[in-house]
Design brief:
Number of strands: 2
Helix content: over 70%
Strand content: under 5%
Length: about 250
């Protein structure tokens, strides 16, 4: 009976991987940035950067349909650690320990998080509002699972939670761009800075687990490399976000 939960978890991790592979196999994403032709800023200044109408959807989908090797590496590692965690729990379940009596089982929360993560790109990925709901639900479930897994030698759970937080932060930026028409520099910064603030609070709540911060630092680096060509402000936001997560990483490790 104690292996039923890990089997369900492994099943949903396989569904997540298959869904992710199918999503990355779809049409290539549109360019993130476009240059508007009118030089309204003056003859000596470059034309202002404008937001492509589809950027609100493309920004969070960059994590699911990678455009560079760093993003690809992050996505592959997320899939791999979830599969290995599920296999490891079937071979040697850890949810029958005293920690389970104190915090509850992990597999229902992480299975639900992976189920929503597998569904939302297809069902909720067409409007910024629904995408925000889908990514937010995934993040809440994964972070709750990470809190239960803290100190129980299951870093994959917190790593997945950190990745979902980065995706949620990007969806939040996309929602802000669709609602308020923000310039691309602000949009890219919003995809990092709120995530750093949320990540710091979540890491304090999760407890001693370095997987969460590690995933977010990796995600911020990958996002900055993908978008920093638009403006140095993006690079500055990435440095601030990475520094903030590195601070809580040191605290979590100690």
């Amino acid at each position: 009976m104690q292996r039923i939960g890990p089997i369900i978890q492994l099943t949903f991790s396989m569904i997540l991987v298959v869904s992710g592979l199918a999503f990355t196999d779809k049409a290539a994403p549109l360019p993130l940035l476009v240059l508007d032709s009118p030089r309204s800023s003056g003859p000596l200044l470059p034309p202002p950067l404008q937001i492509d109408p589809d950027v609100a959807l493309i920004i969070p989908q960059m994590y699911l349909d990678p455009v560079n090797i760093l993003m690809w590496g992050l996505l592959i590692v997320v899939w791999a650690v979830l599969l290995l965690d599920g296999i490891g729990q079937i071979i040697d379940p850890s949810d029958n320990s005293q920690a389970r009596l104190l915090h509850g089982p992990i597999w229902p929360l992480i299975s639900a998080a992976m189920a929503v993560a597998a569904i939302w790109p297809w069902a909720f990925g067409h409007t910024p509002e629904l995408m925000l709901i889908g990514t937010g639900t995934t993040t809440v479930l994964a972070t709750a699972a990470a809190r239960r897994s803290a100190g129980r030698d299951r870093p994959a759970i917190s790593f997945f939670a950190g990745w979902t937080t980065a995706v949620f932060s990007a969806a939040l930026a996309g929602f802000a761009s669709a609602r308020f028409g923000l310039p691309v520099q602000a949009l890219s910064a919003l995809a990092i800075l709120p995530g750093a603030a949320i990540g710091m609070a979540a890491q304090m709540w999760i407890g001693p687990s370095i997987g969460y911060c590690s995933a977010m630092i990796w995600a911020f680096c990958a996002f900055a490399i993908t978008t920093m060509g638009s403006d140095p402000v993006v690079a500055l936001a990435a440095v601030l976000g990475i520094s903030a997560m590195a601070t809580v990483l040191v605290r979590a490790a100690s």
